[in-house]
Structure formats: C-alpha cells, structure tokens
Design goal:
Blueprint: H1 7-10, E1 20-21, E2 27-32, E3 38-48, E4 51-54, E5 58-63, E6 66-69, E7 80-82, E8 87-92, E9 100-110, E10 114-124, H2 144-158, E11 190-200, E12 204-212, H3 218-231, E13 235-246, E14 249-251, H4 255-267, H5 269-277, E15 284-293, E16 296-304, H6 311-328, E17 336-338, H7 351-355, E18 359-365, H8 370-377, H9 401-411, E19 424-429, E20 432-437, E21 444-445, H10 536-539
Parallel strand pairs: 11-13
Antiparallel strand pairs: 1-2, 2-8, 3-4, 3-7, 3-9, 5-6, 5-8, 9-10, 11-12, 13-16, 13-18, 14-16, 14-17, 15-16, 19-20, 20-21
Helix pairs in contact: 5-6
C-alpha cells in the first residue's frame, strides 16, 4: 500500500459495540481489518478514559484457542498476519468499567501503514439490557455442534419444531464467508422453462431457465413465451454498459465547500485513479460522477471489475482513493466522511441505477413474427396493442378519427360516425368511445352486442338514424353491433333534462335504472355501461 489511512478512516478498524467487561476482571474489545492485508508488528498501549494499559497487560486472541501477549509481537518473525476481514480480540488486564460511554485509544504498528493510532468511543451496556444471543463458536461456527445449537435455540425461541430445515446435502464449511449463523436449508420449488435460444456476444446457444416460485401458471407462461421467441430466431443480447459503483459522501460546513471539492476531484482524477487501482489487479477506475446536495458532495466511483461482480473489490479501491483524497485535499475542511452514502444503492431499486448503470447493462431484443403470434398466441399485433411503426411505446391511444376508424376495423370491420353534441368531448380509450360533457350520452363499447343509449330524452330520432334495438338484439348478429346514437345536447342554457318513459327502459336485457341529470358544467363523469369488460390495455393503465 502506498497510502496512510487518516484518523477518520482508522475509526472503521474498531468494532463498535465490542467493548465489554470480562466475567471476573478485565476488559475486552475487537478490531477488524477493513483496509488491506497487513502484518501487525507491534502493540504499544491502550488507553480507556484516563487509564493507560501498557503492552505488558495486553493479550491478543488469535482464534483457535491461541492467545499471545502484546510484548511477544515484533517485526522479526513474530508479527501477526492480518488479512482483510480478520478480527482480533484484545484482552486488557484492568479493572472493570462502569456502565456508560468510554473513550478508547489504541496504539499499534503494521508493516504497510507504519504506526497507527485509533481513537473512538464505545459504551459498556448493563446486563439488564442484554437480550438472548444466537449461539456461535469463535473456533468453528460451521461445525455440526454449532449448527445444532442454533437449531435448538431457534426452536426454543419460536416454540416451533423445524423438520425440513435440518436436512441438507453439502458441507456447511463451504458457506464460510457467504452465510453467517448457518442453521439449515429451506426447500423451494423450482420449475424449468425453455430452453431459450440466446444470441449474445458471449452467451450463445440454448439455455434452460430455472424459476423458483409457488405462483401457478407462471412457469408455464414463461415457457410459452420462450417457445414463441425460439420460433422467431431467439433473443439477441447486447452489453451496452459495464460498471460497478461505490458512492462515498463528504460533508462540509456549507454548500460552497462541497462545490469547490467537487471541482477539485474532477481536476485530480488522474492522481486519484492510481490510488484506487493499487488495491487490485482487476479493478479499473473509469470515471467519477459528482453529485452535490446542499453541503454534501457525493462521489460515485465507477469501476470495471472483469468477470467479478466486484462489490467488495470496489469498496477496497474506493477506500484507498478516499484516504488519498482526505490526505491531499487542501480546500475547505471535510467535516465528516462516509465510505458508502447509499447512493450506489446496492441490492435495491433506484432511479439512479436505471438512468446510469450498476453492473452489466444488457439490452435483449426479439422480433416476433405476425404469423407466429397468430398461430401460437391466437392474437394479432393490433389486438395485442403492440405499437405501430413510428408510434411511441407504452402510449395510450386517445382521440383521432384515424385511430377510431382503425379500431373499428380491427374488431368489427366498421364503426358508425359519431358527432358529439354541444358541451361534449369524445375520446377513444382502448376499444371504448367515450362521450364526456353535460349531455345524456354514454360510451359506445365496441364489443359483441353492446349498443349506446345516447339519445336526448326529449328529442326524437332523426331520419336515417339507427333505430333503437329490442332487448334481445344482441342475439341477432353483427348488424346491431357498435351502433352509435347522436346526442345534440341541450339547447337551453340551465335546463335540466327530464328522462322520458321510453328512455328509462334499458337495452340488451339489462335492468332499468334511474337516469340522473348532470350539471351543465360537469366534465368529470364518464358514463360506462355496467359490467362492460375493459380491455387489457386499458385495465393495465388504470
């Protein structure tokens, strides 16, 4: 390593909450290496409050029952190897501490960083505040005895007996570093879909798709879609972005300090890059995005990580880069620093990751042929609501005589012209022609036997206008479908329409219902025939 951690970063070495009194006498705490692989070459002293504990009264627990005195640690063959992720328990021969907060200072040395001084605060918690702890073993936490102890603890704590959780077919030691407090394995149903033909830049061929689910018809639906894609030549996949992020935040006293810091980072990116890449032979710093919010400066480091996902890799690299930044920045004082600001948004949905990239950004493309869609899915592209050439994807078609005419041709081959009355507006939503306004209109549902009842209660039908249809008209064929009645609206301002007797009877065998007059300026209501099914395209947008 070529950098020296700042005091702010060194605080991360201490395991907060680890300070505790030993059963009889003495105090203990833990430190954990979160920087880089080093060798501890000496332990000078520890100070808790005003009490200084020299090296003669310090012992280090190395695990596996091995404990070494601090005076036995030296650079000439007696150093302690401390890889990343390893923890050391420090035991102090000193009187027990009172409950409450205590300042803790540690002086020790390493071969990579030299002499280090860690200064933190931690608390001694009373026994009354302790809750039951999950059993674990510092020697071998993946042994059968440790696992059985946790299983008994879980059964006693929950009052339930776990029958299937205890059965598994692999060595639990394989999970070291991947699953803590291992207790058992849950059985999850897995279904297979595919195979799917993938035409990618790296993955080419047919692949089976395992799907863990208990949702009925889910696997079958995916499998049917994959058959359609295979008949159309498969899926073409293209990697258009590849970057893994870590996003630290630097806190200043005001927004001006954050702004100047962001400009300085942009100007010194060439000096920051080698510091970040010094921790790994794989991680390569691509660029740094700077986002300012009040007095906070968020730096989003973007790395290439090869074939690895690289979350831990970029964490170490960003840690090294931030240490160099804190040591070399000469602008306004950095009040606080956090290695992860949650702006990298790992393991959760985030708009910044949608707009930018986290991991591999892949586009999967497929062209579904019309004949395959009709034969396999029994639907045409128009019926499925697929966008036409030049039409924006996801748009809800609203208004327009051309769209309305195409809509009628798609379902029934024709649609009657409709002319809205005064104070009305018309819209086409899915397969529905909707009248909005103060008239007595209701929508025209172009589906099977529905007929609009739009006539004015005091106006007779005009010559050439479709006659009203008896209740059993829906059984007579397509000539009664999609018939639209004109509605001229009220001519007299402020007059309320009174429903006549012949307009109170409902069509198509439906029960009569009262017709309420609408206010003159009411544009908020859409009249829809009861129980009329909405198309899937409209239902998905409501």
């Amino acid at each position: 390593m070529v950098f020296t951690p700042s005091p702010m970063l060194l605080k991360l070495l201490y395991t907060r909450g680890s300070l505790h009194n030993l059963p009889h006498t003495g105090v203990a705490f833990s430190i954990k290496n979160r920087l880089d692989t080093v060798n501890v070459t000496g332990f000078k002293q520890v100070q808790i409050g005003d009490v200084v504990i020299p090296a003669e009264k310090i012992h280090i627990d190395l695990g596996n029952g091995e404990r070494r005195a601090a005076t036995d640690i030296s650079p000439d063959g007696r150093a302690i190897e401390l890889p990343v992720g390893r923890a050391l328990d420090i035991f102090l021969d000193t009187p027990r501490l009172a409950e409450g907060m205590h300042p803790v200072q540690i002086w020790f040395s390493t071969d990579a960083f030299g002499d280090l001084h860690v200064e933190v605060e931690d608390a001694i918690v009373g026994l009354a505040s302790f809750k039951p702890h999950i059993p674990r073993s510092s020697e071998d936490d993946y042994s059968e005895a440790s696992i059985a102890a946790r299983q008994r603890f879980a059964e006693e704590f929950s009052g339930k007996e776990f029958t299937h959780l205890k059965h598994y077919s692999f060595d639990p030691h394989m999970l070291k570093g991947n699953c803590e407090h291992f207790t058992g394995v849950a059985q999850i149903p897995v279904g297979l879909a595919g195979p799917l033909q993938v035409n990618g830049e790296h993955a080419q061929g047919e692949f089976l798709i395992p799907m863990a689910t208990t949702e009925g018809t889910l696997v079958a639906s995916y499998n049917r879609g994959m058959q359609v894609l295979n008949l159309c030549g498969g899926v073409k996949c293209t990697v258009i972005g590849d970057a893994m992020q870590r996003a630290p935040v630097f806190v200043f006293s005001d927004a001006r300090g954050a702004r100047d810091f962001g400009k300085w980072v942009e100007d010194t990116i060439d000096q920051i890059r080698p510091q970040a890449e010094s921790t790994s032979s794989v991680a390569k710093l691509q660029y740094i995005d700077t986002y300012l919010s009040n007095k906070f400066a968020y730096l989003r480091f973007n790395f290439s990580t090869g074939d690895a996902a690289g979350q831990n890799m970029v964490g170490r690299a960003t840690f090294a880069a931030c240490s160099w930044i804190l040591e070399n920045y000469r602008g306004p004082k950095v009040e606080h620093f956090y290695l992860e600001s949650n702006f990298a948004t790992d393991k959760k949905a985030s708009q910044i990751n949608v707009m930018r990239t986290r991991g591999k950004r892949v586009v999967a493309e497929a062209v579904v042929k019309r004949e395959v869609l009709q034969q396999r899915m029994r639907v045409t592209p128009e019926q499925a609501g697929l966008p036409r050439a030049g039409e924006q994807r996801g748009r809800l078609p609203v208004g327009g005589q051309q769209q309305r005419r195409a809509l009628g041709q798609r379902h029934h081959g024709h649609v009657h012209r409709h002319r809205p009355g005064r104070g009305q507006r018309e819209r086409v939503i899915g397969r529905h022609l909707v009248l909005r306004g103060h008239g007595r209109g209701r929508f025209v549902h172009q589906h099977h036997h529905s007929v609009a009842d739009c006539g004015h209660p005091r106006r007779r039908h005009r010559p050439g206008h479709p006659k009203r249809v008896p209740a059993n008209a829906g059984l007579r064929g397509p000539r009664y479908r999609a018939q639209v009645c004109r509605n001229r609206g009220r001519r007299g301002a402020g007059r309320r329409a009174q429903p006549g007797r012949r307009h109170q009877q409902f069509r198509l065998g439906e029960q009569p219902r009262a017709v309420r007059p609408q206010p003159l300026t009411d544009f908020s209501s859409i009249f829809i025939r009861p129980n009329a099914p909405l198309p899937n395209q409209l239902a998905g947008r409501l």
